[in-house]
Amino acid sequence: MSESSAQLFPVHLTPGGPKLSRALVAQIPPELRSDPDAELLLMGCRLGENLIALAEHFAGRLIGIEEDAESIFHAKMAIAERGLQDRVSAQFMAPVQTNFRPSRFQVVLLEGMFSGYPPTRVLKETLRVLGTPGWLLLSDSCWLEDDVPTYVSEVWESPDHKILTPQGLRALLEERGLEIINLENRSDVLEGFYRQFTGTVKGIAKSGFEGMKHMKGLVKHYKHEIDVYRKHGGKRYMGYMSAVTRR
Length: 247
Hints:
Blueprint: H1 5-8, H2 17-25, H3 30-33, E1 39-43, H4 49-54, E2 61-66, H5 69-81, E3 88-92, E4 105-111, H6 119-129, E5 130-143, H7 150-156, H8 166-175, E6 179-185, H9 189-196, H10 200-207, H11 215-231, E7 238-246
Parallel strand pairs: 1-2, 1-4, 2-3, 4-5
Antiparallel strand pairs: 5-7, 6-7
């Protein structure tokens, strides 16, 4: 018997989880969602939760990539548990350099890629593998204001990597010739996402949940970030955006 969703995915590893992923895919044309020959690429598939959830709403082939071997192993296991190997797969690959042929995908969904890699490099590779016409969807962290205090900006940024504002995201997408269908503030998903790391995830880390040993590292990583967001005024500056664009 297949494991339940709670067993396979006891926590969401992207703000908004599968609900947000489905909401973005729901905005592409219904004839594309129901086309068994269409292909969707999810950059940032983590443990495979959102990838598997999308399989119920996208009739074609789905491929998820992630640059973390443990996450890909778990995603492959979860895909097999659900019996979806015929049209869903997870591959170890960097979003800035994939081995897919040009213009292969009709839909590309980026989840947390601009905050993890240089946005211009991710977008260059995305547009290389996205067909014309094609749909680029994304969800990611953003700054809600231009002037962010250093103690907040250090949570998400490094000297060589900057987080975009909504205005900066819009400008980047439009400069690359993408038509923005919808750009939406999704910052409300952050509270629930962070809440996991002070409750559910901490318990998992202490118990040594099989296949998710890296949860201890995530708890440590998010501790300071959560304090800045919830206790030190970071919520005013730290946001989350989604975009639906067409090429």
